[in-house]
Each structure stands twice: as structure tokens, then as C-alpha cells.
Amino acid sequence: MLGILGMVVWLGCIICLIMVVIKMFQDAGPLHGILGIICGLYAFIWGWINSDRLGLRNIMLIWTLLIVVSIVLGYLNGFSYSLGTPAVR
Amino acid sequence: MTRAVLFKPVLSTILRDRRLSSIICGAALLQLLLTLIGVPGWTCPVFHTFGIPCPGCGMTRATVFLFRGNLKEAMTLHAFAPLFLVALMLIGFATLGPRPRIERMIARTEALERYTGITTLLLGGLIVYWLARLLLLQTAFVRLIQG
Fold it and tell me: Which of B8, B54, B127 sits opposite A29 (nearest CB)?
């Protein structure tokens, strides 16, 4: 159950990241967009700083909530719920 | 892409925005501190969703190794960690340094970015480095990132 919830939370996080990165490409240019892909934390900070100006407030609130849930789930489940790990072929 | 796009300053834009640079500096220091004491901080959504490390994965731990003076481990984990540390130091100085010196530093950084396109080169280099590790050393790369 926690595993499925974890997957949903991470999928939500990645959707929020993609939406913010798209805004970064449009508003700040391609280099900032690439930086947002490379460093999710930068995209998160940039999103909050520009949330009012670009109408990202709801997305950022959802993303923040999902991060809090992911941290709680991580502590409950020992960070073992993520979709990808391990992905070694 | 035109020259204007490729040579557009990125770091100096961040340095010029004192609010952005102070939040980045605080968040990065918090992330490094949490990693140093073994508490999970910011986790990469790309890695957790797809199981594929993003180009920045491993950077925090590599920087922690740098702080500990272990250059070899740091370079094994992420070769761009020293550059990340330099950028972080610049951002830290832009947050806390005296105003006239900050203005001079930002002007120099902007000129460097505009004339050399160093930001584009480094971001491109980071993508190539990530692709090389992902395509040629995938198993080792994922294990390395997983710790």
C-alpha cells in the first residue's frame, strides 16, 4: 500500500517538475531550463520565487505537499518504495 | 540556437538576484549538512520515478567528499563537484559579501559568460558526461548513485 502511494507521490513530483521546467524554458530561457532538469532543487526554488508572477502557486503548493508526503513515507518505509530503484540491468 | 541564446548569462543572473541566491545558498548548505550527518534531504524526483540518475545525481555526496578532502572519491562520484563548489562559493559571496565587491564580481562573471559561453559549455559537458556514464557504465553508475 505504501509502495503504491510512494509511486503516485513520485509521479506527482515529476509532473510538477516538468511543468515548472517548461515555465523555466519559456520565461528564463533554455539554459535555465536545462539547469532546472539537472538540479530539481533549483527548479523548486525558482518555481516558488516566481510563483505569483507566473501563476505557479497551485503547482508549487501541490509539489511541496508531495515532497512532505514523500519524506513521511520515506521514514515510514525506509525509502524502499520508489519506482525505479534498483534499475540495474 | 543563436549566439545570444547560447551565450546568455545564467550564473550572473542568479548572483544578481539576492533573494534567489540567498535561498539557493541556504538550501544547498542545508542539503550538504543533512547529507553529512546521514539524514535524507532533497531526493531526485527523476531517479525515484524512473530509476535513472539525472545529470546532477551524486553531486551532493561528491561535494561532501570534497569538504572532507577526499578528492578521489568526489571525482569518482561526480566529476563536476569542484565546479559546483566554486559556483556555490560565488553564490554564497553574492549573498553575504560587501555590495561594491559583489557588483564587481557579478560584472566579471557576466562578461566571462557573455564572451566565452562557458555556462553553455559546462552544461553541455555535464549532459555529455551523464550520457557517457549512463550508456557506457550504466550498472556501475546506478550502483554508484545508490551508494
Answer: B8
Q: Is the residue at A73 inside a domain? A: yes
Listed residue (B25, B36, B28) closest to B68, CA to CA = B36
The string of pLDDT tens digits covering residues A38-48 is 899 999 999 99
User: Which domain does A21 fall in, by range?
Assistant: 2-77
User: What interface predicted TM-score (ipTM) does this complex get?
Assistant: 0.86
Closest-CA residue of A relative to B80 is A38
Per DSSP, the residues of A43-84 read HHHHHHHTHHHHT-HHHHHHHHHHHHHHHHHHHHHTT---SS
Let me know if residue A89 belongs to a domain.
Answer: no
User: Looking at the domain assignment, is residue A87 inside a domain?
Assistant: no
What's the pTM value of the predicted model, to 2 decimals? 0.86
Contact list in B for residue A86 (CB cut-off 8 A) is: 51, 142, 146
